[in-house]
Structures are given as structure tokens and as C-alpha cells.
Design goal:
- The protein is of the alpha+beta class.
- It folds into 3 domains: 102 residues, no CATH class; 69 residues, Helix Hairpins (Orthogonal Bundle), CATH 1.10.287.130; 136 residues, Histidine kinase-like ATPase, C-terminal domain (Heat Shock Protein 90, 2-Layer Sandwich).
- The protein has 8 helices and 7 strands; from the N terminus they run ααααβαββαββααββ.
- The protein is rod-shaped and about 140 Å long.
């Protein structure tokens, strides 16, 4: 099968052919016009030496050019496998130098695009995994309240003679589970707004002490047997009141869910803190509990689809603040932030 010659082979084949023809012509010329045979042979020998040196010099140059071109070809061939392009070359001629520099620019551009593509694919995989986690979390969190609603409703439907007191209890259970589903949906919608960048702050001046009192009253209707204490004094802040209510409600509900004793809210020195004496968080989990969809294997922290503390962190970040967490396992936790 016909094989195309390499650059060096092609140059040398052409050069040797031309050199041999020129050498033969000059040799005949020397023999015909130089009467002294010895002088003619010396002239032919010098001519042969000159051609040999010339051919050798061209051979070295062609070999170097071929090596550089093979290096560039290697980059092109193995572009996806190359982590870094750090090769700089120099050619004998300006044309070859320009070709080399332009090819290197193309290689770097292609490598940059490949890196962008890989990062995009990695981000896409992460998004898909998060979406799968979200769907799993949604299914998990909605299953229990829906099952409760269906169970109590079926009982009420099948037994019209059920006692009034028990009927009221079942209706209250249905109402509470409906509220839980509505709360989950609201949290999901809020998270989606943050993800899409649609959430905006509507700041106003208000007393956060008063807001905490309102949140405590609303939660005590749900957690009737629990006690939430409030210490501190009035503190006027400039923030989005609706979003800060979400922050406080999330932090207080977490504290109520994972502790059986009194929950304490303190407002002092510009800091709002929520302290419980519950299960606590291990040191290795503290940095993880504010991540989206995170669910600890030991304690099901923030069981509302793993979004509650992530939303808190995002809201505080929008207010140029930060959620601080101090916790010890089996001793309790303190969640605090400054405005």
C-alpha cells in the first residue's frame, strides 16, 4: 500500500535528486573543460564535499522541523488527554514560526473549550443528581401527610356514626397535615426562586424583637406543649421582614423538632440566637447541615427536604450576614446571626 513520505523524507529525496543531477552536470563540465585531470578530480571532490555539507545541513534542519511538527501533531491528536500545554518552539523561518504560534493558539483555545465543556458536564451531572435528590425528598416528605389525610378522611367517610369528639380530632389532624403540605410547597417555591435568581429583597425598618414574638406565638399553636423563652430587648433592623420571618421560623422549628426541653431565643448586641438542648450536631456534620438536600444519617437534620437551613443561609447571605452554628452531640445547638 502506498505510504505518504514524512516531511524529512520528502525534502531529502527531492534535495538528493536535484543535488545528484547538479553534481553530475558540474562533474562533466569539469572533465570537459579542465585539461589537468588531477585538478579536475580535486574540483569534483570539493564539489562533492560541498554538496555533502549542504545536504547534511538541510537534513538537520528538516529533521528539526519534522520533530516540531510531530510535537504539534501529537498535541492535536491527544488534545483531550493533555492537562497542560507548555511547549514553546522556534523555527528557522518566519512562516513556520507563524504557523506554529497560530497552531498553539488554536490548541490552547480548543483546550480551554474542552475544560469549559468538562466543567459544564460536571455541573450538569450535579444538577441532575440534585434534581433526583429533590424528587426523592419531595416524595419522602409528602408521603406521610398525604397518607394521614387519606387515612383520616377514609375513616370519616366510612363511619358516619363516629363520635363528635373523635371526628373533631381527625379533622384537626387533616387540617394540620394540610398545613404541613402547604408549608413544604412554600419552602420549595422559595428555594426555586433563590436557585433561579428571581428572589429580591424588599427591605424595611422593623423591630426584630416584635417579629420573634409573632413567630413564637404562631409556633406555640402548633407545638402546644413546648415552651419557647425570649430574652433581650427591642432591636430595629433594616431587612426584608418576610424573609427574616422565614429564617426565624426555620431555626425555631428545628430547635423544637430536635429537643424536648425549653428553646431559648436571645437578642443582644445585634445578634439573634436560637438555643436548644437537643440531640446536637457532630463536628463533621456542622459544615454540611446548611447544604441543599443534606440529610444526616444519624439525625435527620432539617427534614423538610433538606432545604430549611439552606434557605436560611441564602437569606442571610442576601442580607450580608452569616449563620453561625455551635453544637455538641447530646448537649444541644445554638444557631445565631447578626444584622
Amino acid at each position: 500500500m502506498f505510504r505518504r513520505p514524512h516531511f524529512r523524507e520528502y525534502v531529502m529525496a527531492r534535495l538528493v535528486t536535484v543535488a545528484a543531477m547538479v553534481f553530475l552536470i558540474f562533474s562533466i563540465f569539469f572533465v570537459l573543460f579542465i585539461k589537468d585531470t588531477k585538478v579536475a578530480l580535486i574540483a569534483i571532490g570539493l564539489l562533492a564535499l560541498a554538496f555533502t555539507v549542504f545536504i547534511f545541513a538541510i537534513y538537520r534542519g528538516a529533521k528539526r522541523m519534522q520533530k516540531e511538527l510531530m510535537t504539534i501533531n501529537t498535541y492535536l491528536k491527544n488534545l483531550e488527554k493533555i492537562d497542560k500545554i507548555d511547549y514553546e518552539t522556534r523555527f528557522f523561518t518566519k512562516e513556520f514560526e507563524d504557523v506554529n504560534q497560530n497552531l498553539m493558539k488554536v490548541l490552547k483555545g480548543a483546550k480551554k473549550r474542552e475544560d469549559i465543556k468538562q466543567r459544564y458536564n460536571a455541573k450538569l451531572k450535579l444538577k441532575n443528581r440534585q434534581r433526583a435528590d429533590m424528587l426523592s425528598a419531595i416524595a419522602h416528605e409528602f408521603r406521610n401527610p398525604i397518607a394521614s389525610i387519606m387515612g383520616y378522611s377514609q375513616t370519616l367517610h366510612e363511619d358516619p356514626q363516629i363520635p363528635a369528639e373523635l371526628r373533631e380530632k381527625f379533622l384537626e389532624k387533616i387540617y394540620n397535615n394540610g398545613n404541613k403540605i402547604e408549608s413544604l410547597l412554600s419552602r420549595l417555591i422559595l428555594w426555586n426562586k433563590f436557585e433561579s435568581g428571581e428572589a429580591t429583597l424588599h427591605k424595611s425598618s422593623f423591630d426584630i424583637y416584635t417579629l420573634v414574638q409573632e413567630v413564637i406565638r404562631s409556633l406555640q399553636e402548633k407545638y402546644k406543649t413546648r415552651e419557647i423563652a425570649l430574652q433581650g430587648q427591642s432591636m430595629t433592623v433594616e431587612a426584608d421582614r418576610t424573609l427574616m420571618e422565614v429564617v426565624l421560623k426555620n431555626l425555631l422549628e428545628n430547635a423544637l423538632k430536635y429537643s424536648k426541653e425549653e428553646v431559648m431565643v436571645r437578642i443582644e448586641d445585634g445578634t439573634v440566637s436560637v438555643t436548644d438542648k437537643g440531640v446536637g450536631i457532630s463536628s463533621k456534620d456542622i459544615d454540611k447541615v446548611t447544604k441543599k438536600f443534606y440529610r444526616s444519617g444519624t439525625h435527620n437534620w432539617d427534614n423538610s427536604m433538606g432545604l430549611g437551613l439552606s434557605i436560611v443561609k441564602t437569606i442571610l447571605s442576601l442580607h450580608k450576614s452569616k449563620l453561625e452554628i455551635k453544637s455538641k452531640v447530646d448537649e444541644g445547638s445554638t444557631f445565631s446571626f447578626k444584622l
